[in-house]
C-alpha cells in the first residue's frame, strides 16, 4: 500500500463507546489507572545508526496520545531516552551530520569509532568533531527530528541518569534481588547461570563494557568485575582481563533490566513500542517490574513498523530517509497526519507517490472545514484529528494541488508561478497575502519531489524562449488545429485524446507528433503526459507556443 492510499482510519466500529481516533482509546486505558499529573509518556532508542523517519514512529505515537490527554485537561510530559551507555558493537555503514546529510563511514573520522568498539556511545569521540561524543551527536539528531515536527520531547541521556545517581537506587534494588532476577530472566534468556549478576561495569583500564561481575556490595555501592570478552553478534570484542572495582554509577544495567529501571525512575505511565518488542522484550520487562522491582509497568501499546518505498528501513542498505529530507518534500502537517493512521496497520511510506498522501491530507482538511462532503465517520475523524496536526486552524489557508504545484515547479519564475496559479483559480483575488505565499511554498517542495524521484514532472519548461523545432507543413497545420481545440475549452483527458486524433487525421507518426510537442515546450524528446500538462498551463501561453508565435 502506498502512502496516502489508505482510508483515514481503518478500524472497525467497536460500539457506542468506541472512539473514532485510536489515541483516545489509549488515553482511556491510561486514565483508568488514575495517574498523577504530569502523566509521563516515554519512548527510547539506542544510538546505533542514523535516526531516520522510522524511528520517529515512536515519538509521534506518543505525541498523539499526549495530545488526547491534554485535551482532557491533563499535564503531560513526553520523554525519549537515548540508551547512550550501550556499547558500540559494530561500525555503522552510514551516519548523518547535524545538517541532515547522510554520509558513508569513509567520509568521517571512522577511526574514532573503530578504536572504540565495546565502549559506551558517550565515551566515543564524535566522528564529525561537532559534539562531545557520538552518543550526544545522535541524541541531538533525535531532538532535531522532534523539533522539526513541533513535538515537545525531552531527550534523556541514560549516561547522565547513571552518572547523576538517578538510577542508583533501582540498580541497587535489582542487585539485592539478584536471585529473583536470575529466576525471571531465565524465562526469557538462555544461559543464565547461578553466578549471573545483572550489572555491566565499565572497565577502568580499557573503558569497555564488561558483563562479568564477581561480587557486589549495595551498601558501599560497588561491584567487583573482570574485563572479559563481549559478544557482538558473530564477532567478539576482546576484553583486557583487568580485575577491578566499579561504582553503580560506572556501568549500566543489562537492557532487559534497564527498561523497567527507566520506567520506575522516570515514573512512566505509558510507552508505545514496535511489534518486534511485543513477544520478548515487553513481557520480560513487565515480569521484572512486577516480580523483581515490585511496581506496576506502564500502559503498553504495540505499533506496526512501516516500510519505506516498499522495503524495510535499513541504514546498512541505504534505505533510509531523515525527517529533514521529508520536510523538503511536504509540509510538517502532512507528515504529522501520516502518523495519525491506525498503528495496528502496516503501510508503506512511498516517496514516489507522495502526491497521493498530500491529496489525501488536502481532502481531510477540506472535510474538516466543511468544504467537501464525507460520511459521518470521516467527518468525525477529521474534526478530532485536524487540530492536532496543524499549528493553527486557519479557514483562509490555500492548498495548491501537489501535482499542479509540481507543474508550476517546471519554471523557476516566482511571479509566473503565481500568475498561472491565479489564472487557474487556485488562488483567489481576495486571498490574504500570507495564504498565497504559503500556498506557493508548496511549489518548491513539489519541484524537489519531482527532481529527487525523476518522475513525470521533472522537466524544465522553456517559458521565456521558444526552442527550435523542425516543423513541416503538415505538422504545422495539425498543431494549429490542436490550438483551436484547446482554445475552445477542454480538459486534460480530452486534449490528450485530441492529440492522438489530430495525428491520425494528418497521417503523422504518433511518436513524432508528441515529440514535436515536447520540443516546443521542453526542448526534450519526451515529457509528462501532454494533454493534462497543457490543460494546467495558462491557455494564452499554450496557444502561442503551439502556433509557434513565441
From TrEMBL:
A motif ('HIGH' region) lies at residues 47-55. It catalyses: tRNA(Lys) + L-lysine + ATP = L-lysyl-tRNA(Lys) + AMP + diphosphate. Keywords: Aminoacyl-tRNA synthetase, ATP-binding, Cytoplasm, Ligase, Nucleotide-binding, Protein biosynthesis. It comes from the Archaea. Pfam families: tRNA-synt_1f (PF01921). It is found in: Cytoplasm. This is Lysine--tRNA ligase. It is an enzyme of class 6 (ligase). GO terms for cellular component: cytoplasm. Belongs to the class-I aminoacyl-tRNA synthetase family. Its EC number is 6.1.1.6. GO terms for molecular function: ATP binding; lysine-tRNA ligase activity; tRNA binding. A motif ('KMSKS' region) lies at residues 312-316. InterPro entries: aa-tRNA-synth_I_codon-bd_sub2, aa-tRNA-synth_I_CS, aa_tRNA-synth_I_cd-bd_sf, Lys-tRNA-ligase, Lys-tRNA-ligase_SC_fold, Rossmann-like_a/b/a_fold. GO terms for biological process: lysyl-tRNA aminoacylation. The keyword Cytoplasm applies.
